[in-house]
Amino acid sequence: MPTPKDAERYQSFKGSPSDLHVVDQFMLEMCKIPHLGQRLDLLLTIRELPVSMRDLEPLINQKIQVSKQLQSSQKFVAVLEYILAIGNHLNEKAGKEKAKGFRLSSLTKLPLLRGKERTFTLLHALVEQIFLHEPDLAKFSQELTEFEAIPDASMKGLSAEVDVLKKELENVIQCRRLIKPKTIKATPQESQFCKELKDLIQKYEGDLSQLSRRCDEMKKLYSNILVKFGEPQDLDSQELFGWISSFISEFKKACAEVMP
């Protein structure tokens, strides 16, 4: 983009543009464009907005599916009840009171609690009890297939990115008001530019509104998950889903070791 000094130099040129080098001819034409900096920023944003929305959409949809699976999985809840029963049996042996529930972060500790045999963990004991009483529960992960590949993005991060896109679109709208021709003497190119910009803004407003609704659905579903499992409302989804994903992986390993 020409600097103010460049613009002053080119605009003071009195000769024929054809006498200039092709680069200088280009720069001369650039200097004639009003609000050039804002237009270039605008074009860059318009180019990047749909890409950003396309990148976010599958991540948000995946989080929605994860939450729906977790909300509806009865087998996972039944496995948690087994864990609570085993934990309370250990509490009773240790002279402690029975617990009414436990944090899901405890799932990551099951493979770490070992018995007299160092290779036998509390997770192995859980698998044994499930195979003994309700072997069908060992397949609970079939109800939670979305946990096999949890992306790194957290719901808080995704929600923040949607908010950033809203602000960027608002900046585009403000910029359009700034560069919109103030007189009826606008050139055909000016009029065409502003018309295409208006059409793009309307399209992006619709696309972003739909993405925002999906984001709200994602947050509501996750909030319901936290209530269901008694977790604090400020718990990051990355942590919660990470605990469950890790538990599923370790559970499958223990199943292979208990029932080779």
TrEMBL record:
InterPro entries: FH2_Formin, FH2_Formin_sf, Formin_Homology. The keyword Coiled coil applies. The keyword Cell wall biogenesis/degradation does not apply. Pfam families: FH2 (PF02181). Keywords: Coiled coil. This is FH2 domain-containing protein. Residues 194-221 form a coiled coil. Residues 1-260 form the FH2 domain.
